[in-house]
Prior knowledge:
By secondary structure, the chain is α/β, with parallel strands linked by helices. It is built from 13 helices and ten strands. It holds the Pfam family AAA_28.
Amino acid sequence: MKRGFVLGKFMPLHAGHLSLIRSAAALVEELTILVCALPDDPIPGEIRLQWMRDTFPGCRIAYHSDPACPQQPADSPHFWQEWTRIVRHHHPEPINRLFAGEDYGAELARRLAAFFVPLGGRVLGADANGIGGLSGSAIRADWWSHWKWLPEPVRDYYSLSVVLHGVESVGKSTLAQRLADHYDTVMVAEYGRAHCEAHGTDCREEDLTLIGLTQQAEIEAARPWCNRLLIADTDALMTAAWSQMMIGFVPDHLVCHRKSDLYLMLGADAPFVDDGTRVFGDPAKRNRFDVVARDVLKLTRVPTVAIEGDYDARFEAAKAAIDDLVASRRSPVAPAA
């Protein structure tokens, strides 16, 4: 059996890594990938480990995290002996082929009595503006510009999501689609509306729980397809507000989920239009619903920007808020690890 070995930090995993590993996997019968991490890495090692498991289910994935481990030959006179020991610990069987996209692979392969296979454009300095020129540090500094080189789990990690929040008939659906068109991305429609059109508006706890969970499932399913930014018509926090209004309490499932990066709280100053699925058209109930919706955002402490005015004013205010979010997250220190 031909056994191969690849190691790296994969911080983050990108197209260069995928090309190298897929090529390596085609050249051996068994491929082991060692994910190397340090406690203070900007992207936690456990996250990168899961990326590799999700992306390469046919490979053997190992993990090494030791703050005392030397990172460069200059760090220790025993650098190569230490890394030879680490590799043999995670791969006790003989290694036939060691794959790497950098020169260190030659010396490590020699010490492991393996055949060095230099893969990828970086070895020859080729394709500097494409896959061959990719580096983890450059991507971490500006993931927005490197989006096309990121695989699905890394896009899930970096993507930003914006949720429109507010009571009935404040223009969430129209604004969500307009924002998605403006940012050339996808939007997630409101599941609750489809549910009520199919089953009626007399919702019980089980209906509301299903609506909230389904909304969140659709948001997560759409993340890999978004263009850096995902726009959602609503999420389970709005279903929580509906629950408070309709059944007098909020099921735990509706607040225990992955929160979005920004919530746009649309004011109830928009004209009410009854399209057949509206429930709280009475002004007093509408005002109370608005208060409940705002309270849900306050209680969950999610980042919120209030959006009011006519439809064009709402669009401009929403754009400004989203642009501010993007600018803050494109900095080298974001997203938070």
